[in-house]
Amino acid sequence: MPAYYLEALTITLGIILLVAEAFVPTKSKAWLGLAGSAGLLIVLGLLPISAAASSGNQDWPIWNFYQFDSMAVFFKGFALITTILVLLMSVDYRAILSRFTEEPQSENNTGEYYSLPIFACAGMMWLASAKDLAGAFVALELVTITFYILVAYMRRNLGSLEAGVKYLILGALSTGFLVYGIAWIYGALGTLNFEQMSDLLRQQAEMQASGPNTPLLFGVALVLIGLTFKIGAAPMQLWIPDVYQGAPSPTTAFLSVGSKAAGFVLLMRFLDTILLHAPTMPILGVLMILTIATLIYGNLGAIAQSNFKRLLGYSSIAHAGFLLLALSAYNWPADVDSRLNSHEVVSFYLVTYLVMTLGAFFILAQVRIQRGGEEISDFDGLGKTNPRLAMAMTVLLASMAGVPLTAGFVGKFLAFSVAVDAGLWAAISVALIGAAAGFYYYFKVIRAMWWNEAEGAPAIKVPFISSICISLLTGATLLFGFWPQPILWLVGH
Amino acid sequence: MLALIVFLPLIAFIAILLGAPARKTAIYSAGANLVLGIYAAVMRDCSCLDFSVQVLSKPEINLAFSTDGMSMVLVLLSVIVTLAAVLSGKAPAGRETLYYGSSLLISAGALGAFATTDLFFFYAFHELALIPTFLMIGILGRGERKAIAWKITIYLGLGSIILLVGLVWLANLAGTMHIPSMVENLSGENALDSGTQKSIAALLIVGFGTLVSLFPFHSWAAPAYASAPAPVAMLHAGVLKKFGLYGLLRIAVPMVPEGMQVWLTPVLVLLLANILWVGYVTVSQRRLDLLGNSSVMHMGYIFLAIAALVAFPENTLAKPAAILLMFAHGISIALLFGLADSIERKTGTLDLEELGGLAKAAPKLAFLFGIAGMASIGLPGLANFAGEVLVFLSAFQGYDPTQGLGSVQIACIISIWGVVISAVYMLRAYRNIFQGPAIPRTESAEDLTFMDRIPAVLLTVVLFAVGLYPNLLLNLLR
After folding, report:
1. Residue B296 to residue B118: CA distance in whole angstroms
2. Is residue B118 within 8 Å of residue B180, measured between CB atoms?
């Protein structure tokens, strides 16, 4: 089966659900979410049997802007799994959704919330396969525009609306940077295709063209700025805390995992294009400065937070910093036979990030629904009222902080390892301080759960789907801490 | 077999989480582990002990356990102290799961760190043991428990992260994470250049040093032990803290010998500060909490043995001396913390001024505490004496009278004053608590019950056995 059927199927699924929602009058819309995740599960099942090009359609023009390498497979799977989990989370979150849409008593206005993530998923999947900047841009916009709606979905909630406006304005700004940068690159090189760009750069390097190619560098810088918006890194990280806090929790989870991964896959393809044959380009230095700024902003900003969702926002910036740390070690280590290279480390880290972050959001969503708030103090005494839930949350938070024998530690370990190889000492020392600060702010939540007393706070009843997902994600966090090999299989070894 | 020793506490921990009776499960598993540990020590050369499973192929990480004499001694220390800790602890009502579960988790972490041969798990297991330590102090600690738990989280977290960079750097340069192969790859012709050695050694000394409470990174230790519930204080001061020293001996000294030599003089100054500065601080303390600082102080002697090994690499005594003293100190400090907990439970205070004459009401407690105190001072016949004497002797190995005293010898001579310091505070504490006329607070105190005595006697017997016949352990090191 040609690989691009996957995207086609995903889009079809989204459209079918949208239509079905309009024509099947049911009281509860939960079935839409379940049907959506079931459909995506089928697409996920088709992923391994898809092929780059079957013999018959090798020359089909679509292959000029669509590729299917191991990185594409990995990120398609990543997008699908994220979306499935987000849809399941939405199903259990629908009480809050309906409260803040028109007709608060019914779920009538919540149906689209289950099909929009599927479109975003299709965008992410296409992005993973993009072969040129134009295709990548279109895919990225599909993701971003869907997110504009998803963020502001709770239309009767001021926080959600505020988040929507902020995301829209800053998102439009970053899109502007991206498009403008792409235009400059096109002007400098005359092509948008990654392979052709890379060839041109090689020829220029061979001819030892005099001086740096300033228009190209300018374009690259603009594209980098545009992409930092997607991955949530400096200098375009300012939107994250507000938008994360205001958006519905499943959207926030989707933003912090799916959108970030989409940004990273494009960033990696872009860096490969630019740096493969022109390694002297002064990009990695810039990237390291961005890394340092991101780590400082994310980790130090998180320390003062008292709202857990906002804290997760800063934490997502901090994780972007650690991912960038690995990415700044581009082309390292030298000995790739026995070690993971910087791209593989990024992919590896993203998997660990997925399991622990989505797990935390599942728990946060239930706390929000049943205790009415998202403050850290809403977790008070959870260790007494719900010991198992608190235990799961402790594992997930410990993993985010990078405590050994959890998945998060393996990711951080590998990121540090590749950065040490590349000798990025300035960034490493900042990352160290960041990791230590992480112990502080993640443990604030653990402390609230175990050390503080619950004052009449109710025990939380975890719905069936959430409890399955939380157990799975927590189990995976622990399992990958002991036995990370499965992630390596996913990454493609 | 070693894998079983490491995983048995974890399995028991999970069983407790799932609802098994906490105290019984903890005691049975710790008892079984003691038997297994002794069996492993007897069978130490058998390859049947080893265990290895690949958990990541690129970079290669193996969950591998194997021991040599050094790690075997520490495994023995861990299983002995674990049993004593779970036996002597009294969980507050309703908190049994947390109390015994955490103790087992600390034990598993320490055992794993000592028994593994893989750098990744060496680090990971130790960190695993720190988490329950924080939680126990934060939830069940005494006094300013939350502030203290924060303090040690930050100190030890930062220390371990600095350590992690050093370890990762070494692993990258060695191209493997199998510790014996790392030593091989980084010695002889492949030894690292001196600049790199110097930087890595600095990271390792600060990292491991913080974990062992090397001056000036020691200020977390005394409040933490004062606040911690008894089993945590016993396990952390007795066992887990030895991880840093073990790491210096296992990683730093063989892999970056030149780098360690660069830092020899600063380390000597710091370890003297441990012995003298912290020693005098201990003398001025008026609560039995001084045990925490006393344990910080005694780390100085073990550092001295390591320094002797660094200064004179052919030193045959330094390594056995360090290991023996680590073992002896671990047993004696665990005994002291366990008995101090009994004193507090029976009299309600640890303030030396408010105690007195306890020996009348509780002669058995007084007797055992006396032995533990004497061991800690270094009375001949008890294990600590053997260790300390070996340390002092090792400092003079390689001493050449024609060259005059080297820095290690000078440090050794100064450090002997520490023996006097520890005699002062320990004997004074003993006198204040147990001697003199009985006061109302101590008159009606109960003596140790039979169940209380089991762990204390277990540790005391070990102190005597190793003190009278140190070859029991030294044979393992050959």
Report:
1. 28
2. no
**Nearest-CA residue of chain A relative to B141?**
A451
Q: How far is CA B278 from the centre of its chain?
A: 17
> How much is the ipTM here?
0.84
With respect to residue B294, please indicate whether it lies within any of the assigned structural domains: yes
Q: What is the tens place of the pLDDT at every residue in B451-464?
A: 888 889 999 999 99
Cross-chain residue pair B59–A340, CB shorter than 8 Å: yes
Tell me the C-alpha distance between A210 and A207, whole Å: 9
State the virtual CA torsion across B359, B364, B370, B375 in degrees, nearest 10.
-170
State the nearest Cα–Cα gap between B409 and chain A, in angstroms: 37
Quick one: A489 exposed, middle or buried, by C-beta within 10 A (0-12, 13-18, 19+)?
Answer: exposed
Q: Looking at CA atoms only, how far is residue A177 from chain B in angstroms? A: 37
**Cβ of A396 under 8 Å from any chain B Cβ?**
no
Q: List the 209-238 stretch of A: residues with Cβ below 8 A of B.
A: none
Q: Is residue B58 part of a domain?
A: no
Q: What are phi and psi of A428, to 5 degrees?
A: -65, -40
Ordered alpha helix ranges (H), A211-259: 214-231, 239-246, 249-254
Is B123 in the A-facing interface, judged by CB distances under 8 Å?
yes
B93 touches chain A (CB under 8 A): no
Cβ proximity of A410 and B164 under 8 Å: no
Question: For chain A, what are the domain ranges?
Answer: 284-493
B11 lies within 8 A of chain A by CB = no
Nearest CB to A338 within list B60, B131, B146 = B60
- Give the integer Cα–Cα distance in Å for B197 and B459: 40
Q: Which domain holds residue B456?
A: 263-478
Q: How many domains does chain B have?
A: 1
User: Is B28 domain-assigned?
Assistant: no
Query: What digits encode the pLDDT tens for the residues B72-117?
Result: 999 999 999 999 998 887 877 778 888 888 899 999 999 999 999 9
Rounded Cα–Cα distance for residues A160 and A166 (Å): 10
The helix/strand/coil state of B55 is strand
Chain B CB contacts of A405 under 8 Å are: 124-125, 127-128
The pLDDT tens digits of the residues spanning B349-391 come to 888 888 888 888 888 888 999 999 999 988 888 999 999 999 9
Average pLDDT value over all residues in chain B: 88
Determine whether the interchain pair B56/A391 forms a contact, defined as Cβ–Cβ distance below 8 Å. Answer: no
pTM for the model: 0.89
- Chain A within 8 Å of B120 (Cβ-Cβ)? yes
Instruction: Report the candidate in B133, B132, B196, B124 with the shortest Cα–Cα distance to residue B160.
Output: B124
Q: Determine contact, residues A331/A342, Cβ cutoff 8 Å.
A: yes
Distance from CA of B349 to the nearest CA of A (A): 24
Question: How close, in Å, is residue A339 to chain B by CA atoms?
Answer: 5
| Within a domain: B463 | yes
Cα A322-A323-A328 angle, rounded to 5 deg: 95
What would the two tokens of residue B195 be? 């600049």
